[in-house]
Structures are given as C-alpha cells and as structure tokens.
Amino acid sequence: QICLSLVRLLFYLAHSPLGSIVLLDFQPRQFVMVDGNLKVTDLDDASTEELSCKEDNDCTLDFPTKSFPLKCSVVGKCEGINEKKNLFNAYRYFFTYLLPHSAPLALRPFLSDILNATGDLRYGINETLKAFERVLHLYTSGLYLQKRPLHLKDYISLKGFRMVEGEDYKCWPSYSHLGCLLSVHSAEEAAAICNSQSQCQSFIVTQRRTWTG
C-alpha cells in the first residue's frame, strides 16, 4: 500500500503541470500517510530544474552505491533526470525495505521484478506504476490463487462460535504478536495456509478488512 501510493505520487510529480518535479531531500521522514495515501510534508526542497548539459558525459546520475549514465537532450537538458532520481530514491528508501516482505508467495516474483527493474533504473515511472497496478489487480481479484488444490472441503464450518482464548499459536508474518493473524482473499486461501502449517488445526474468519477490501 505504501509503495503503490508512493509510485502514484511520483507519477504525478513526473507529469505535473509545472514539469517534472524532483524531491531533493528524499527521506522517509518527509512523508506521512493520510487516509491510506502517502503525502509529502515538506516541499521546500522540491525543484523543476533539470540539469543542463552539452553532451551525454555531463549527465551521470550519482548515488552512494550506484551511478547511471543518462542522455543529453537536444534542448541541452539531462533527459528524465528528475524522474529517475525520485524513482531510485523510492527504491533505496522504500522498496528494498517493504516489497520483499509479507506479500503472498505467488505475488513475490512480480514484486522482485519491480525491485530489480527500479534498482537498475530499467523501468521509468510509467512502467513502474503499470507493474504495481498489475500486482494490485492480481491481489484484489484473487487471480494469484488460481490452479491450487482445494483445501476448504477438509474443514467443518461452525458459525457463531469462537475458539477458547490461548489456543492460538504464533506465526510470521502476523498482524498480532499474540497469535497468528493473517490477511487472506477468501476462506479457501485460509484453508490452504492452515493446511501448510503443522500447528494450525482450525482458523477463524473475522469481519476485518484490509485496505484492498
């Protein structure tokens, strides 16, 4: 949710009415979540200036661990430098910490592709947003669950009952440190997860909903 919201924000900055905007002080502390959307809190260090150049050699985008050669455009500006700077900062401050964790197994290869492509700046912001939207579609539609054996038929459904407190076990990743609380697309996915964990004998489907509904 955080990474997708950040990419949508960077897409807007890359195509803003003022031109491509770069955030010069790109740090996690410069952002807050408001109603599930990432917002920039400090615009003092935002700029629409793109680096001037005479030749391609003038257009190297330098970071502490990597450098990227860019093209000098016919108007004497380093092509896409603001967009690429924002995107690589998103990769090193957000994507590397958030994308590899907690996603359903079937979606992790797609997120790894995004991680690798933005880390090498093979993707621009348009391609990155498109890739994130594809993952979101697979997740919200449940398409990532296709071609799996059915496990729910092995369980008995009891409505209106609650398991005795203290019978839960701890798992990772979990929304609660007291037990095993996971998000699933359906009861069928819950059954598949429970079936794969030897400690799991039963599961409860609650009314809680994730940000995707």
- Helical content stands at 25-40%
Query: Strand content of the residues, in percent?
Result: 5-15%
Classified by CATH, the class of the largest domain is Mainly Alpha
Please tell me the overall pLDDT: 91
What distance lies between the first and last C-alpha atoms, to the nearest angstrom?
12 Å
Q: Please identify the structural class as seen in this structure.
A: alpha+beta
Shape: elongated
Note the main sheet.
2 strands, antiparallel
Number of structural units classed as domains: 2
Poorly predicted regions: none
SSE order, one letter for each helix or strand? HEEEEEEHHHH
Query: Which sequence of strands runs across the widest sheet?
Result: 1-4
Q: Enter the CATH topology name of the largest domain.
A: Transferase(Phosphotransferase), domain 1
The CATH architecture of the largest domain comes to Orthogonal Bundle
Rg over alpha carbons: 22 Å
In DSSP terms (H or I, runs of 4 or more residues), the helix count works out at 5
Number of strands: 6
Q: Which oligomeric state applies?
A: single chain
